[in-house]
Amino acid sequence: MKLYISVDMEGITGLVDPTFVDSRQHNYPRGQHIMTQEANQVIGTAFDEGCTEVIVNDSHSKMNNLLIEKLHPESQLISGDVKPFSMVQGLDASFGGAAFLGYHTRAAQKGVLGHTMIFAVRDMYIYDTAIGELGFNAYVAGHYGVPVLLVAGDDETAAEAEELIPGVTTAVVKKRISRTAALCLTPEKSGELLRKKTKEALAGRSRVKPLVPPDRPVLSIEFANYGQAEWAHLMPGTTIEDHSPVVRFQAKDILEAYQAMLVMTELAMRTAFS
């Protein structure tokens, strides 16, 4: 089978504060190295367990973080920005399963470095279901009939994944102490765990069903302030609430909702505070 892997950065072991995930900060090269190591543990195990093709999508920030020269030689990497489908670029119905590595909790929830796309987002919903990056990406996978088999990150992210996706295998590589502190496995031990959990996820893939999104979903994004909502509302087809920073969009399907989310969050980042 073909395996799709989306790799974010905040949920990687040892990466506990912005200095590890911001390319301008001193710990970022260390973060890249550990991120690439964790990806390789899953990639290598997937090939050992019979996967015929593994596509890896770099899914953090400018999406050029993974060190391709150190990546498993049989994998293929989607790298760079701008991508029409961001964290799930390249995902389609040809894949037998997906794995989300280095993932984090959604905005306003407990978890190491938790957020939803940008720090301007307080919460995001498909109809009345609150979702973060994990949930939205799982819905896109479900649109193609692809189940999310494995989610790796901190303990709070694992709980979010298990609530959302029945039967999913989770790998807890660190336990939250605060938003910027955690009890972390060493890379050697996280590697052992990821290899074990990848084997479990692939062996038990028949028990996990795709997270099928609703038809004609309504996307709602609650921003941190009204100015951000006003920028997002510049996108045609949106509505904005009068007295709260919530912008809504009626989409024809989850793919249109996903791209609408990308456009609205990009616009919201233009808000100035001085």
TrEMBL record:
InterPro entries xrefs: DppA_N, Peptidase_M55, Peptidase_M55_sf
Domain of life per record: Bacteria
Any single Pfam family the record assigns to this protein: Peptidase_M55
Protein name: M55 family metallopeptidase
Species of the source: Paenibacillus gyeongsangnamensis
Higher taxonomy: Bacteria, Bacillati, Bacillota, Bacilli, Bacillales
